[in-house]
Predict the 3D structure of the following.
Amino acid sequence: MPSLPVTARSGYKSVNGIRMWYAEYGAGKPVLLLHGGLANSNYWGNLIPFLVAHHRLVIVTDSRGHGRSSRTRQPFGYDLMASDVLALLDQLGMTRVDLVGWSDGGIIGLDLAMHDPNRVDRLFAFGANTDPSGLRRNFDRTPVFGGFIARTRAEYQALSPTPDQYDLFVRQISHMWQSEPHWTRSDLATITIPTTIADGDHDEAIRQAHDRFMATAIPGAKLVILPEVSHFAMLQAPGPFNQAVLEAITP
């Protein structure tokens, strides 16, 4: 697991009843990185310095209930988490950003692209889905994904303001995965911003047919399948992953 670079520009914002952690790095056109479910911003430790070296202002945030951010009793949902992101951007004075989302972060990015396209310039969505039918059965029981879930327990206990509630947290997130989102081809056809649908060719969670569906449903979308990696390509092959991100968010 990479470490986050050191920055003096980090802290918490009060957002929709929670304390949402964020950090900023570098300078230039802003790009927001949204991590996957159960994870936290540390997973972007390889991508952040790469984008900073390419003259980008990088913003990371721990999603509601993840990492250093708190949660309420309100059930997790992608619309709610997208509203968290918008409220955070408002408080940071960010009118528009490029958005890089992994897994749940990619789904939140798609939510924003459909409902708030004036806030996102370009979208790179890796390992996302737009309906539970896009998920492989029992993906959470595969060796790699199962290892991820086991590792996130220790990460949660080290970072969370509620370190003793990991099992409840997993149950809540798993319910969201099973019940959301439910976007149709017509919904995706409303996306007008430049979008890249990306995935690994060995993704444990997302069916490749679903990747192709999303890419064909979104007007002008590009499909990128990285070879010899899975749902965790940013850790398994940071070089190709970082380059794919850079190409997707560069006009």
